[in-house]
Design goal:
Helix content is 43%, strand content 15%. The protein contains six helices and seven strands. Helix 1 (45-58) packs antiparallel against helix 2 (62-90) and helix 2 (62-90) packs parallel to helix 5 (118-132).
């Protein structure tokens, strides 16, 4: 693309995070990441430029296509860097669900899954946590979406057909949940449980 980059390696001392809180992160398609602290990473960079990319591809504008792909990649990386840095600065422990894109890329959700960039975000969180002395752990997120984070009963909508339901009310305790926010709270609880049991190393 006619661009030049200069990379240099330097020695640097890393600052320890002063964060005292802990947060759980639910990775998704509608929103790339939602954490129990209330922060959201929307993502969906490919979707934002999908129409322009399609027009350029149909017109066979090769340089334009490369430029759009580069913009999508750079915007996704920029958003993930800012989001991960904020979490590392504010927390002493970060837990993320173990959702994998491997199986989902074979479904109709493939574009959204790849656009979310879960693997890249987890990599950023892991190395930033290591440098800042923050606990980072990938925990089992099974049933986190359907389990009420208040009463711990599995009363939420389940299955791919119910993914469109973004808000639901627990029929046991009556608390209304935003789907991703509820899942992130359950992931946090699972992570703290592992931490209390001595299964997570700083």
């Amino acid at each position: 693309r006619g661009r030049w980059y200069f990379n240099v390696v330097v020695d640097a001392e890393f600052e320890r995070s002063e964060g005292k809180s802990a947060t759980g992160i639910d990775l998704g398609c509608k929103k790339a990441a939602t954490d129990s602290s209330g922060h959201v990473l929307v993502g969906r960079e490919y979707r934002k430029l999908e129409e322009k990319l399609g027009n350029a591809q149909r017109a066979r504008k090769t340089k334009r296509v490369r430029a759009i792909h580069a913009k999508i990649k750079n915007c996704r990386k920029d958003g993930q860097h800012k989001y991960s840095r904020k979490l590392v600065n504010e927390n002493a422990a970060i837990f993320v669900g173990n959702v994998s894109s491997t199986g989902l890329v074979k479904t109709k959700l493939a574009k959204s899954v790849l656009d979310a960039g879960w693997g890249q975000l987890k990599t950023m969180l892991e190395y930033k946590c290591t440098m800042a002395g923050v606990v980072f752990e990938v925990v089992n997120e099974a049933h986190s979406t359907v389990t009420c984070s208040d009463c711990n009963k599995r009363t939420g909508p389940s299955g791919q057909e119910d993914l469109r339901i973004r808000e639901w009310t627990c029929c046991e305790c009556g608390v209304t949940h935003q789907r991703d926010g509820n899942a992130s709270k359950n992931i946090l609880a699972s992570g703290l449980g592992r931490l209390a049991g001595g299964k997570v190393a700083a």
